[in-house]
Amino acid sequence: MTTPDPTPAVDSPNRMPRDDEVDVFGLTHLGKVRKTNQDNFLISSLHKQMRVHYTSLPEVARLPLEGERLAYLCMVADGVGGGLGGGEASRHAIEVVAQYVAESMCCYYTADATDEQAFCDALQEAAMHCHQSVAEKAGADPDRRGMATTLTMLISVWPVTYLLQVGDSRCYLLREGALTQITRDQTMAQELVDQGVLTVANADNTRWAHVLSSAIGGRQTAPVVTRIDRMWDDVILLCSDGLTKHVSDDRIRERLSTMKSSKQVCEDLLQDALDGGGSDNITVLVGRLVRKPSE
Hints:
The structure is a single chain. The chain has helices spanning 85-103, 106-109, 116-139, 188-194, 200-203, 241-244, 249-257, 262-275, and strands at residues 22-29, 39-49, 66-80, 148-149, 151-157, 160-166, 170-175, 178-181, 224-229, 235-239, 282-289. By secondary structure, the protein is an alpha+beta fold. It has one domain: Phosphatase 2c, domain 1. Strands 2, 3, 4, 5, 6 and 9 form a 6-stranded antiparallel beta sheet that branches. Strand 7 and strand 8 (178-181) form a beta hairpin. The chain is globular, with a radius of gyration of 21 Å.
């Protein structure tokens, strides 16, 4: 047995954030017009765990059953389809992906610089598995025909975050006061902009603005994985288009730049969207790191 080093650990600027340094919150709202909420979201952490099956110890609770945090997993899904189909599609997509990630340990055990391609491939496979599951569910029931969903998912394994995008829900990054939209909207309007048929200024005012060119369970799905190297002062926002229909990027940047907590800024952005009309379901997730002195 070795004697512990009495020297205090150095608070390295690149160290992994502790659980108490992660400030994350999410909410979803019906909006002012819709009769049902077809948005769903998930915020979760992934841990190494010890499961005790048999023991003679009287107090199992003293054991470190929940081990080191491996990753954070966050998802936003905005359902498409009449009736209850859209809401069921978004809920089913999140459940399927969450289960896939939990059971396919490679999604985070291989999350390092030496195996980046395997990690990206695992996320692409998760999206395609989810797409097939939603499509099969829709095909088996005429009442669910046409149901589909967007899926914007990030999995963060410090100091890297991977972002999976299908559809037009969005991910924004605030870094050093600058707001960047990390995701690309997978809509017909954006396709026409890319082809030079429409200008960016005109795209939002066309009937193609919210017609998806790619969706989980839709006719086409084209998942895109993006790597983000994280920094301590970053703020990340995931949202459905119920927010961005009514809240400008400038307003989002202002809110994130002056935030006091993730809960507070989610509530403020929701109110901005409601004040702007609230014409769709609204989902907002915000996460940031708050450095505290090392123990």
